[in-house]
Amino acid sequence: MARSRIRRCPVCRAYTLRETCSICGAATVNPHPPPFSPSNKYLDILLKIRRNMRENKPGKDINTPSSSI
């Protein structure tokens, strides 16, 4: 499988082939998730992180309780 060269800016979410974003100048990251293996020794940590990310979605303030109207 060929390694992907495409990168993504976490700030403005633009895709590029460069190490820095040409739009905002931020450092780019690999947009692809790491490979998943059930025998991974860090599986429990990965699942905790994913669970927390699902519960605390971006844009949701985790410090204020949700109000039911």
From TrEMBL:
The keyword Signal does not apply. It comes from Caldiarchaeum subterraneum. It comes from the Archaea. One of its GO terms (biological process) is rRNA processing. Pfam families: Nop10p (PF04135). Gene3D superfamilies: H/ACA ribonucleoprotein complex, subunit Nop10 (2.20.28.40). SUPFAM superfamilies: Nop10-like SnoRNP. Involved in ribosome biogenesis; more specifically in 18S rRNA pseudouridylation and in cleavage of pre-rRNA. One of its GO terms (molecular function) is snoRNA binding. Keywords: Ribonucleoprotein, Ribosome biogenesis, rRNA processing. GO terms for cellular component: ribonucleoprotein complex. This is Ribosome biogenesis protein Nop10. Belongs to the NOP10 family. InterPro entries: H/ACA_rnp_Nop10 (IPR007264), H/ACA_rnp_Nop10_sf (IPR036756), Nop10_arc-typ (IPR023532). The keyword tRNA processing does not apply.
